[in-house]
Design a protein that fits this description.
Elements: E1 10-16, H1 24-35, E2 39-45, H2 51-61, E3 65-68, E4 82-83, H3 85-90, E5 95-99, E6 102-106, H4 109-117, E7 125-129, H5 133-144, E8 148-153, H6 156-166, E9 172-176, H7 179-185, E10 191-194, E11 217-220, H8 229-236, E12 240-242, H9 245-260, H10 266-278
Parallel strand pairs: 1-2, 1-3, 4-6, 7-8, 7-10, 8-9, 10-11, 11-12
Antiparallel strand pairs: 3-5, 5-6
Bound molecules: 2'-monophosphoadenosine-5'-diphosphate.
2'-monophosphoadenosine-5'-diphosphate is lined by residues 130-135, 153-155, 158, 177, 196-198.
Length: 280
């Protein structure tokens, strides 16, 4: 790729703090190579006090676009010239597109989630566990696409507030995340999503193992480990499962498409992501 970098190379990248071991540069650069596009994806660790300067830099240097990650996703929203409906609802921007000096903020979590799920959700009953940033994006995506959505959260008030905000878009209700509530929903749920952070350390939401059945579609947004205890159990009972890395892949592909205006080579991105995430 190095020999391709010249005066015409278009620059994109990610900002966050800390950035840790972000896999985005490998994934996006492989996709640029595959598509024969003269783009390069870089990573900039930007401390909170430098966020505004970094965004001015995007305008000043004509950087084509950015991914935005923790802790900047919310604060960057007010620095945009325009934001998509999804980003506005979720209150967070994860993708910026510089259109001739005008910065547009998007949130590709919504399309990324829907593509990962890969199913028509219209008329289905979906239970979303979690009402944080990820839960918001997932519940919005489901409600907007005609699913009946039940949001469950450990802190019930957060689920209630989110359901109220979504009530103008679709049929959305809320409840406390508890074994008895999960049990009461067993008969009616078609789709079950874990949008909490539970599962990263091999733990499991209490009571969730008891509601799994072969007719369920189960997705876990936790992507490390690839097969969380929830997905492992769901698979064992014969349910269809969707691993969290698929959302990571499709939200990245959606950003790539916003910047390039072309269809993303998802196969190559998947290969690079899996290799770098899990050594597969
Ligand atoms: P993210 O952006 O990944 O959604 P977040 O906004 O911090 O992160 O939200 C984390 C979610 O995981 C919340 O829904 C949180 O529940 P609370 O709102 O009650 O905090 C949920 N969560 C985290 N740890 C949990 C646990 N041990 N049991 C149940 N839910 C948990």
């Amino acid at each position: 790729m190095e020999e391709m970098i010249n005066a015409n190379t278009k620059v994109v990248g990610v900002i966050g703090y800390p950035l840790g071991h972000t896999l985005s540069p490998q994934m996006h650069n492989a996709a640029f190579r595959e598509a024969g596009l003269n783009f390069v994806y870089l990573a900039w660790e930007v401390p909170p006090e430098n966020l505004e300067k970094a965004i001015e830099g995007v305008r000043g240097l004509g950087i084509v676009g950015l991914n935005v990650t923790i802790p900047h996703k919310e604060k960057v929203l007010r620095l945009m010239d325009d934001v998509s409906e999804e980003a506005e609802f979720v209150g967070a921007v994860n993708t910026i597109h510089n259109l001739g000096g005008k910065l547009i903020g998007y949130n590709t979590d919504i399309i990324g989630f829907l593509k990962a799920l890969g199913k028509d959700v219209r008329g289905k009953t979906a239970v979303v566990m979690g009402a944080g940033g990820a839960g918001k994006a997932v519940a919005y995506a489901l409600a907007k696409n005609g699913a009946r959505c039940i949001i469950l959260n450990r802190t019930e008030e957060k689920a209630k507030a989110l359901a109220e905000r979504l009530s103008s878009i679709g049929e959305v209700t809320s409840n406390k995340l508890s074994p008895s509530v999960l049990e009461s929903l067993k008969g009616e749920m078609d789709i079950l999503i874990n949008a909490t952070s539970v599962g990263m350390k091999g733990e499991e939401i209490e009571g969730v193992g008891e509601v799994l059945s072969p007719k369920l579609l189960v997705m876990d947004l936790v992507y490390n480990p690839p097969l969380t205890p929830l997905l492992g159990k769901a698979k064992a009972v014969g349910a269809e499962v969707v691993e969290g890395w698929r959302m990571l892949l499709h939200q990245g592909a959606a950003s790539w498409e916003i910047w390039t205006g072309k269809r993303a080579p998802v196969g190559v991105m998947e290969e690079v992501l899996l290799k770098n995430l899990y050594g597969l």
